[in-house]
Specification:
The chain is 50% helix and 17% strand. By secondary structure, it is of the alpha/beta class.
Amino acid sequence: MWQKLLDIQKRIAPEVVLELQKRSSILKQIEAHQPIGRRTLSRKLNMTERVLRKEVDSLYALGLIDIDKKGISISQSGIEVLRDLSPYMTTLDRRTDLARRLRDKYGLQDFFIIRGDADESPELQQELAKLMAEEFQKMLFDGAVISVTGGSTMANVGKYLHPADEKLLFVPARGGLGEELGNQANSIASRLASATGGEHKVLYAPDNVGESALESLKAEPSVKEIAELNRQSHYVIHGIGEAFTMAKRRNVDDETLAGLKDSGAVGETFGYYFDKEGDIVRKVKTIGLQLEDLESKKAILAVAGGSSKKEAVRAYMKMAPRNTVLFIDESIAEFLLDS
């Protein structure tokens, strides 16, 4: 029924569909953060205050929200409208439906999906970074500490963040890898801090070190500070890598590559290589964030785009904490549903 109604609306009055999406999004943000001021709400929605004021006035006139000195709250009528609208909005966007089915199947906090296969278009990699930035910005609060890893998609996230009123601190979740400087965690933490007006820390250490050097580094005050901040951080944003791509970024030797191949490694994150069952087959000695630190976070924002990473993401799903929010493309989403 909903699909038929949606098809008719798209043909005869597409502007109605867009308006429904916009007002539904506003009501959801109000419900999640009430009572909320107009300025904060406009920032979370990435909407100008002038445009938002018009929408708020309309929603108030319809009795869907309440406004008082504390800010804007959703009314009982607004709650009922959101509930009744939910199946329609799910039908409205196939990717929303994909996300719902993935939540049901894997039980993670949330899924966000872009169209297509990001391996086939650099534009889609940008779209993925933009979506992650938009959702991340909605989660921020004053005093938030964010652990950040490296990678090309992560490097693009900062392009789509905007200045925040909240006081934020970005911390590199790992040391330097043998890769392009701009894609390393230190550089990305600096970039995200600059984009949001926050502060950042620098980890003066390589990511892959020998055991004796690792113990010496752990004793350094500046390194200890970063390690403690990573343990206590509220959010983690990171990429999920294909195992051998990540191994090459680390400049591992041929013996290690052969070992990864023999053990069936398909993915890597935080220096942990894992096979298709999600079992860890190799752990890099690192002073960065550890897997056991993840469950205490408010949310873990993980990103992967392109069909070349679908096996890595499927394996990661078997070890991902429930507080994970996953950003992927349709090629990976459909693979996960069919697996």
